Amino acid sequence: MTGRVRPLGFSWPVLVGLAALAAPRVVLHDLDLVREGTPVNALLVFGPLACWLAAVLWRRPPRPFLTVVVLGALYGVFLAAGHQVLWDAAFGGAGPSLGGNLADVDPAVQEVLLRAAAVLSSLVTGVVVGVLTGAVAVLLCRFVPARDRDPAA
User: Fold this and answer.
1) Do residues 98 and 114 make contact, with C-beta atoms less than 8 angstroms apart?
2) H-only helix segments in 39-95
3) CA–CA distance, 108 with 27 (Å, rounded to integer)
4) Which pTM value belongs to this model?
5) Which residues cross the membrane (predicted)?
6) Which of 10, 54, 71, 92 has a CA 20 to 30 Å removed from the CA of 105?
7) How far apart are CA 32 and CA 25, in angstroms?
8) Contacts of 47 (CB under 8 A, 6+ apart)
């Protein structure tokens, strides 16, 4: 297995680890411990993406765009899981509810619908973050010279 080519350039545990770098922001945000617009929030938002880009520039996977899209999708899974686990804490125990004509729907059904929408939204967000960051990765791979891998050459 040593000489095996990895189409994503990294093993699955490394990909999961890189995606998990973005998980602390989910927890801190849902617990209202970090606010949007602060330097700490910016670090938690952009730091993991910078790490993804640095890893891609360092490793030069054969398909950098796909690699980062997969990282984004994995991040979306962390985002969805974090929001579900911290649902009550994020909403102060009183979860959101549907309005208008749907306000009469059983509250348990409303919660299932809203949680499902949150999962879908999280997954889409993760993939979109991966697509945008993947586009940056492709540009960087084109314009930033690769490091010399063979010091004897």
Assistant:
1) yes
2) 39-59, 64-85, 87-90
3) 24
4) 0.86
5) 38-58, 65-87, 116-140
6) 92
7) 10
8) 21
CA–CA dist 22, 129 (Å, integer) = 11
DSSP 144: S
Cβ contacts of 28 within 8 Å, gap of 6 or more: 34, 44
Decide: 72 and 134 in contact? Cβ < 8 Å: yes
Encode burial over 70-104: b for 16+ CB neighbours within 10 A, e otherwise. bbbbbbbbbbbebbeeebeebeeeeeeeeeeeeee
Query: Count of residues for the chain?
Result: 153
**For residue 142, what are its two tokens?**
């084109």
C-beta separation of 131 from 72 below 8 A: yes
pLDDT in 10s for each residue of the chain, 153 residues: 455 667 899 999 999 999 999 999 999 998 989 998 999 999 999 999 999 999 999 999 999 999 999 999 999 999 999 999 998 888 877 777 787 777 777 878 888 989 999 999 999 999 999 999 999 999 999 999 887 765 554
Determine the Cα–Cα distance for residues 26 and 34; give it in Å rounded to an integer.
Answer: 10
